[in-house]
């Protein structure tokens, strides 16, 4: 559930009083970018990395953020305080703003910034999550997947397909090659090595994915960045997903095929616990 106080373009207001113009380009065209930041012990985690990615996403769409890193951090700190959030996550969305022109981007558009919090015991969710069932589906998204923009209809439809098949996530496949989940990054383990999808324009550069790779290398795992196939996934010893809200989430089944007998693998558990330790420090 969204907490009661939200930030909307310069003001902290009750969510029932937060309104966006019907002519906002984020509403009309998905002409906006977003970030999700975990909250643990009343602090935004991975803020620096999220700030960098938010700036890159906005620059890719020529959207001016209109605020500094320090200003954004102050806003996030204040909304956490106002909503008395100890654990959960922050959602940040920046749209190009209001314009009555159709497709033409007008120079005088004034950006819309929406920030809200969701309270949840994130650490408990990560620790207690049972192995997930996932499905694969054909890639249908636009080519700018490295931009964290709000044009998410293909992701939403893929997720809905997964839910209808009693699964938790959908993995996008392009010409037999694995890209990423509808809202997650994907890893697999084979013979003690950790395999990560190579960063390119086909996937979002996940902040949690980068953190997992750093943690793994610090633990002396060999991490292989590559492009891999659905066959590689189905023959993996372990599979796990990462995201701001999942942390490290084990996968027990892909397209009905059990992975590690549907149990959480030892390497996944090690990385999950190290992720929890990192978030909790």
Explain what this protein looks like in three dimensions.
The model has no long low-confidence stretch (mean pLDDT 95). The chain has 2 domains: 116 residues, Aminotransferase class 4, branched-chain amino acid transferase, N-terminal domain (D-amino Acid Aminotransferase, Chain A, domain 1, 2-Layer Sandwich), CATH 3.30.470; 155 residues, D-amino Acid Aminotransferase, subunit A, domain 2 (D-amino Acid Aminotransferase, Chain A, domain 2), CATH 3.20.10.10. It is globular and about 55 Å long. It contains 8 helices and 15 strands. By secondary structure, the protein is α+β, with helices and mostly antiparallel strands. The strands form 2 sheets. Strands 7, 8, 9, 10, 11, 12, 13, 14 and 15 form a 9-stranded mixed sheet that branches.
Question: C-alpha Rg, in Å?
Answer: 19 Å
Q: So how many helices? A: 8
Task: Give the tally of β-strands.
Answer: 15
Number of domains: 2
Give me the CATH architecture of the largest domain, please. Alpha-Beta Barrel
- CATH class term of the largest domain: Alpha Beta
Summing up helix and strand content along with how strands pair, one would put the structural category as alpha+beta
Name the beta content range. Answer: 25-35%
**Secondary-structure element sequence?**
EEHEEHHEEHEHEEEEHEHEEEH
Mean pLDDT metric: 95
User: What can be said about the biggest beta sheet?
Assistant: 9 strands, mixed
What share of residues is helical? 25-40%
Within CATH, the superfamily of the largest domain carries the name D-amino Acid Aminotransferase, subunit A, domain 2
Shape: globular
Residue runs with pLDDT of under 50 for 5 or more positions: none
Q: What is the fold-level CATH name, i.e. the topology of the largest domain? A: D-amino Acid Aminotransferase, Chain A, domain 2
N→C terminal distance? 26 Å
């Amino acid at each position: 559930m969204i907490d009661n106080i939200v930030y909307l373009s310069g003001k902290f207001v009750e969510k029932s009083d937060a309104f966006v113009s019907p002519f906002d380009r984020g509403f009309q065209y998905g002409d906006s970018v977003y970030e999700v930041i975990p909250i643990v012990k009343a602090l935004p985690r991975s803020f620096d990395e999220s700030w960098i990615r938010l700036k890159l996403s906005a620059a890719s769409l020529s959207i001016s953020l209109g605020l500094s890193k320090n200003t954004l951090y102050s806003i996030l700190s204040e909304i956490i305080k106002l909503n008395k959030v100890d654990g959960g996550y922050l959602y940040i969305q920046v749209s190009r703003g209001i314009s009555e022109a159709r497709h033409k981007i007008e120079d005088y558009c004034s950006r819309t910034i929406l920030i809200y919090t969701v309270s949840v015991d994130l650490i408990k969710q990560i620790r207690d999550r049972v192995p997930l069932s996932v499905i694969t589906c054909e890639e249908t998204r636009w080519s700018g997947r490295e931009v964290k923009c709000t044009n998410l209809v293909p992701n939403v439809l893929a997720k809905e397909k997964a839910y209808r098949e009693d699964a938790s996530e959908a993995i996008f496949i392009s010409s037999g090659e694995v890209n990423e989940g509808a809202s997650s990054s994907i890893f697999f383990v084979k013979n003690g090595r950790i395999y990560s999808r190579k960063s390119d324009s086909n996937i979002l550069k996940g902040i949690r994915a980068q953190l997992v790779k750093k943690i793994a290398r610090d633990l002396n795992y060999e991490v292989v960045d590559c492009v891999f196939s659905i066959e590689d996934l189905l023959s993996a010893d372990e599979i796990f997903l990462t995201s701001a809200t999942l942390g490290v989430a084990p996968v027990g089944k892909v397209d009905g095929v059990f992975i590690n007998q549907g149990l959480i693998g030892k390497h996944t558990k090690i990385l999950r616990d190290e992720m929890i330790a990192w978030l909790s420090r």
